[in-house]
Design a protein that fits this description.
Blueprint: E1 4-8, H1 12-22, E2 27-32, H2 40-57, E3 61-63, H3 68-75, H4 86-105, E4 110-113, H5 123-137, E5 140-141, H6 151-162, H7 173-177, H8 179-182
Parallel strand pairs: 1-2, 1-4, 2-3, 4-5
Helix pairs in contact: 1-2, 1-6, 4-5
The protein binds iron/sulfur cluster (SF4).
Length: 183
């Protein structure tokens, strides 16, 4: 019997190769919790693409509530930070914290996140936040730099083959306003 695994997914371009790698090794469930995404139309668009990927392989997906106010509270006072700074630490930490608690509430002992597939998301930042979230909830964080071992290239191919929507900013209103600074 494969071990249950709860995978936080930020978007389909980051998730597709990770889901494909984990879906046969674990009893995988995908968790979509991204209240950082602005505006809501964009949130719904990204979520639809994750649903599409999960449906292709029959992987169950949990659709968490869209709660932008909770996200705004989490990053308050850090709005003007550059991408990769303290605002992102709060943003990533709150999403991983919610995922870890969801795993614990469902009796799933292990969780992970597709966030390290993102170009701007260094594993050295995401991993300690995942471990901290796991320790607080009593579940294990599966640390992995998904950009490595050819997965980034594989993901790019899979996204192109399916015509999956690829956004040009990280997610929040601040990254949207400054998107041409880091593209
Ligand atoms: S840039 Fe991305 S990681 Fe940073 S706060 Fe915005 S949505 Fe979150």
């Amino acid at each position: 019997m494969p071990e249950p695994f709860l995978l936080h997914s930020c978007c389909a371009p980051c998730a597709i190769a990770v889901i494909d790698e984990l879906r046969n090794a674990y009893a995988l469930t995908v968790f979509f919790y991204n209240p950082n995404i602005y505006p809501e139309d964009e949130y719904l668009r990204r979520k639809r693409e994750v649903v599409r990927v999960c449906e292709e392989w029959g992987v169950p997906m949990i659709d968490a509530d869209y709660e932008p106010d909770v996200w705004a509270d989490a990053v308050r006072g850090r709005e003007d930070e550059p991408e990769g700074g303290l605002r992102c630490i709060s943003c990533i930490g709150m999403r991983l914290g919610r995922t870890a608690r969801e795993a614990a509430s469902r009796g799933i002992a292990q969780f992970g996140s597709t966030l390290t597939m993102g170009r701007q998301k260094r594993a050295s930042i995401v991993t300690p936040l995942g471990e901290e979230a796991g320790a607080a909830a009593g579940v294990r964080y599966h640390a992995e730099d998904w950009k490595k071992r050819g997965r980034e290239e594989k993901a790019r191919r899979m996204v192109a083959e399916r015509g999956i929507y690829r956004q040009n900013y990280c997610g929040c209103r601040y990254s949207r306003e400054r998107r041409f600074d880091f593209d």
